[in-house]
Amino acid sequence: MQFVEEIVVDEFLPTVRSLLAGELRDRDLTQSEVATVLGISQSAVSKYAHGDVTVNDRIAEDERVRTLVDDLGNGLAAGEISPVQALIEIEVLIRDLEAGGDLLAQLHEEAVPELADHGASFRVHDPESDLRTSERVLSSLRRGLGMLETASGFTGLIPAVGSNLVACTPDAENVDDVAGVPGRIFDVKGRTTIPADPEFGVSEHVARVLLAARRHGADASAAVNIAYEPALVDELTEQDHVAAEFDESGDVASSVGAAIEDAPEATVLYQTGGMGIEPLIYVLGADAESVADSVRSLL
């Protein structure tokens, strides 16, 4: 099993670093200066200079790689481009070359011949593929859950029905496009307990609230439910959140939709409960981390 990222580490990065080191040396930078610019050791620069690092000719001869190396060599040598800017430019090129059918995807399929015959091979390398999109959502959700799990005092915000932090894909249409915690997050003897890794399609209630808000114009991709207290709504409002009340005794989707239409900028939705209905607050945000951060601000 070999990942495309291994092709990047083993083939692409040594080649690009070698080419860049050569460009910078040609522009009269010392070995020490080249090492500083590239963030590598002087001994590594020496290896590049003496040809002791294997270069992938197909990568080195790619016109896009040559053009970028030349541009970065000029910019770095003149101090017009920072190492961070150069890193970003290289990252962008890597993602382009990983796209289905492009250079890094070809090298990957040659290293793993089974991919060439697999119906989803192109989607594997597509940065915007469903697989990668889903994994990004799950990764963000895990980070958000980690923030809540380690937040001192979060158990005091968990309602009797439990909390759930959810996040959805960019084109989410139903609960299967929303990831959450199976079984919800509970307070077990004063400890925030997340019973399982997040999955898609396991959240019903919080997912429906998020989806309803999005359908009516909310710019949110994640949400969490916490216990309702008027003081919490006030505190979130003081932190520049826009709050809107909705009625959960009827159709939730319609009620949430009406609340968003009345307050399009709302990032806090709440209902004050009723017969057999626990009052709750829903905090919405761009991603799971930002939602978790908003909740932590209440502690």
Task: List key phrases describing it.
HTH cro/C1-type domain-containing protein, Lambda_DNA-bd_dom_sf, Aldolase_II/adducin_N_sf, 2 domains, 299 residues, Cro/C1-type_HTH, single chain, L-fuculose-1-phosphate Aldolase, two-stranded antiparallel ribbon, seven-stranded mixed sheet, alpha+beta, elongated
Précis, in short:
The chain is an alpha+beta fold.
In the CATH scheme, the class of the largest domain would be Alpha Beta
Strand content: 5-15%
Strand order of the largest sheet: 5-2-1-6-9-8-7
Individual helix count: 13
One letter per element, helices H and strands E, the order comes to HHHHHHHHHEEEEEHEHEHEEH
- Please describe the biggest sheet, giving its number of strands, its sense, and whether it closes into a barrel: 7 strands, mixed
GO molecular function: DNA binding
Organism: Natrinema salaciae
Domain HTH cro/C1-type: 27-48
Pfam families: HTH_3 (PF01381), ThiN (PF10120)
